[in-house]
Design brief:
- There is one protein chain.
- By secondary structure, the protein is of the alpha/beta class.
- Helix content is about 40%, strand content about 15%.
- The strands form 6 sheets. A 6-stranded mixed beta sheet has the order 3-4-2-1-5-6, with helices on one face. Strands 9-8-14-15-7-16 form a 6-stranded parallel beta sheet.
- Helix 5 crosses helix 6.
- The relative contact order is 0.10.
């Protein structure tokens, strides 16, 4: 049995005191709410929010996760500040500048610290203390990543169906990104397992804590799908941030349109292009009457006529104000009504009669409303877009020199039936959002926007995001290697030009913390087939198994996948089954006949031990074990779908299973084997297991030693220091 850390009792006592102080803070908050002035709802809401934060902290079991020691001070680092009765700070928040050395200190750059201690806490009990002592020898100067035992312990924990915060084990590379200036359009490029999504969420929490103005202007977090949103949405509340709006990308549009249909590939490409924005703007300009003519109407027994030249001058003036269309119509209504009244009043004076109507009376006339509709009709986005798609002559005129005839045909469709029953596609939603801005002005805006899986943004989606963040202060998270087919690019500037006029700052995360090295190496065989410019990150982990390949006879895929599930579950791993979209419903139904508890990842059901996920929604998720079902079907007939396969293979933290009944696609074909006809599928899986004791797994320390293997002879002392630190008892001869 491992001996208890000598400081365990003292640190446990300190933790108990911190929790006791937190309980008292909760009681104080409850008393404050009870004493709030009746009717002061704003104060009551603020107090209740503070109380909710405290209650949330109480249940996480990780109030304190670190301690830093400098020659003149000792600080405890946690999720938020804790004070004693005399207002002395007992725990500092991880967001504060004082906590930065906890994340930034390395043996090469101790940041003024003599030591750092990480707490591993479960249900308010410290189960482990991990110390890093900084001395004179710069272990971190060896050129490779410095990996703490605390991080390794976290990485080995089983996944439980939701993304966790990693506030206790943020690495220096990640912390630099978290603290980047808010004003930048920041791109976080990172391969599978580099932690870009969780870094982006921690950056949102850090910015919210450190920028009072941002808290006033609000922050928005956007995920591409409900599946990924369900997976990541719990991280910010764990970090004490409860007032950041988190939405899936299609829900940016707040109008009546909902996506229930699917575009053709060409239709999706046209609607997602920024050329579609030009078509919509041209179509709207054409709805303003270019040759208005005279406006004539009856006011009582009199006729009032406003000459066409005057009407045209009014229209030109209103157009020159650069107002949203429907707001401009309100201005036109006011100005046109005033002009008609002036003509009417002047005519009455010439005839020696007092005016019997005023300008308001004229604006209420049905003839005036009809004239206004003829000059400047009003629309809803849904009415406008449906009519544009259905009116061939209007679509041709609006798209002249912008779209080809084939492209126009790809978006044209009938426009019959009630508007509420129109089957919109997802690409239509961003056209509706564009129209909403043209017609009614900008939507609600935010001080900062965080966008996950941003490599998939179409230009129209990017424009929708830019409208919600006019300052251009955004954090984009993504991996160009995992971009989907339609909008795959090789350079972030091609996406960022739709978001901001200023150049983006690109930060690249290079260390793979999550995906085992053997899995990453296997998945990386797809990258040259996608683009010669793509590179896989460097992984520091080996996982529990080398990638496992299971092949069955034709029509036995369900049995092969079920066997892999049973094998992974015997090793107590959470399991994600990734399958091509067309075969998703069938495989899910067949597997649920065998095990009704299997979750539907399409609906964000990650609560159980096994979840089935369609390949197009797999990006951003993670499981202990991943079973890629029929890789050849995921790739299909398009090499561009290799990005989907690459993403699917890199969703695991411990083990990858390749389950197939068809030949494996290029990049995996070297794994293709012929199954024994005499051996059932289930029996072929039984031998899969963890490596035998006499064939030890190469661990993270082995990877580190590989990194330092190329050192010059005169660095032997540094190597020896590192070896002794990682493996106590190592001799000079061993080194």
């Amino acid at each position: 049995m491992t001996a208890a850390h000598p400081a365990l009792a003292d640190e446990q006592a300190y933790l108990d005191t911190a929790y006791d102080l937190l309980e008292r803070g909760m009681a104080d908050a409850e008393a404050s709410i009870a004493a709030a002035v009746p009717g002061d709802r704003a104060s009551a809401r603020a107090l209740r929010r503070a109380l909710e934060v405290l209650r949330h902290s109480k249940g996480t079991g990780a109030l304190i996760f670190g301690r830093v020691d400098a020659p003149d001070a000792t600080l405890y680092v946690g999720r938020r500040r804790v004070y004693d009765e005399k207002k002395n700070l007992k725990v500092i928040s991880w967001h504060t500048p004082a906590a930065a050395p906890f994340y930034q200190a390395t043996p090469a750059d101790p940041q003024g610290l003599t030591s750092k201690r990480t707490f591993v806490e479960e249900e308010r009990r410290i189960v482990r203390l991990i110390d890093e002592v900084f001395g004179d020898t710069a272990v971190g100067a060896l050129g490779g990543p410095t990996i703490s035992d605390a991080l390794l312990a976290e990485l080995e924990r089983s996944r439980d169906g939701a993304m966790r915060d990693v506030v206790a084990t943020i690495q220096a590379e990640q912390f630099r990104v978290i603290r980047a200036p808010m004003e930048d359009l920041l791109v976080v490029q990172g391969g599978p397992g580099t932690g870009k999504t969780v870094v982006g969420l921690h950056r949102a929490a850090w910015l919210a804590y450190n920028n009072a103005a941002l808290r006033e202007r609000g922050m928005l977090v956007v995920a591409p799908s409900a599946t990924l949103l369900s997976y990541i949405s719990g991280v910010l509340p764990l970090l004490g941030v409860n007032d950041v709006l988190q939405v899936q990308l299609p829900d940016l549009y707040a109008g009546d349109g909902r996506a229930t249909a699917t575009d053709t590939p060409l239709g999706e490409a046209v609607k997602g292009s920024d050329r579609m924005a030009a078509v919509l703007a041209a179509a709207l300009r054409q709805r303003v009457n270019p040759q208005p003519g005279d406006v004539e109407l009856a006011v009582g027994a009199d006729r009032v006529r406003l000459p066409g030249t005057r009407v045209m001058a009014i229209l030109d003036d209103v157009r020159g104000r650069s107002l949203p269309h429907n707001e401009a119509r309100g201005v036109l209504r006011q100005v046109l009504g005033n002009a008609l009244y002036e003509v009417y009043a002047a005519e009455q004076r010439r005839n020696g009669r007092p005016p019997v109507a005023n300008d308001s009376t004229i604006r209420r006339l049905s003839a005036f409303s009809n004239a206004l509709d003829r000059l400047w009709p009003t629309f809803t986005p849904e009415d406008f877009l449906r009519t544009l798609y259905a009116t061939r002559s209007w679509l041709v005129d609006a798209a002249t020199d912008i779209l080809t005839p084939d492209e126009r045909a790809a978006i044209a469709r009938e426009g019959t039936g009630p508007i509420a029953e129109v089957a919109w596609t997802e690409a239509d939603l961003y056209c509706l959002d564009e129209l909403s801005a043209l017609l009614d002005g900008a939507p609600v805006t935010y001080g900062h926007v965080v966008v996950d899986e941003a490599q998939d943004l179409s230009p129209m989606q990017a424009r929708a995001l830019a409208r919600r963040c006019p300052s251009g202060s955004m954090t984009l998270l993504g991996d160009l290697a995992q971009a989907r087919t339609t909008w795959a690019v090789d350079d972030w500037s091609q996406i960022c030009r739709h978001l901001s006029d200023s150049a983006a700052q690109v930060e690249t995360l290079t260390i793979g913390y999550r995906v085992p090295s053997a899995v990453l190496d296997l998945a990386a065989r797809q990258l040259p087939l996608i683009s010669s410019a793509l590179r896989a990150p460097q992984s520091i982990r080996t996982g529990r198994l080398v990638p496992q390949v299971l092949r069955g006879e034709p029509d036995t895929l369900v049995a092969v996948v079920e066997s892999a599930i049973r094998h992974a579950r015997r090793l107590e791993m959470s399991v994600g089954v990734v399958v091509e979209d067309a075969g998703y419903d069938g495989l899910l139904a067949d597997l649920r006949e065998l095990d009704p508890s299997i979750g539907d990842g399409r609906d964000g059901d990650f609560a159980g031990p096994t979840t089935v996920v369609p390949a197009r929604l797999a990006k951003g998720l993670e499981f202990d074990a991943v079973i890629v079902a029929e890789p050849d079907a995921i790739v299909g007939t398009s090499d561009d779908n290799r990005r989907l396969l690459y993403a699917a293979m890199t969703r695991c933290t411990q083990a990858l299973y390749i389950a197939h009944t068809r030949p494996l696609p290029l990049g995996l074909d070297h794994l293709d084997t012929t199954p024994s006809a005499q051996q059932p599928v289930d029996d072929r899986v039984e031998p899969l297991a963890e490596p035998a004791p006499d064939e030890p797994t190469r661990g993270p320390r082995d990877r580190l030693l590989e990194i330092v293997a190329g050192l010059a002879d005169d660095d032997v002392e540094v190597l020896l220091t590192m070896a002794r630190r990682l493996m106590p008892g190592t001799s000079r001869n061993d080194s």
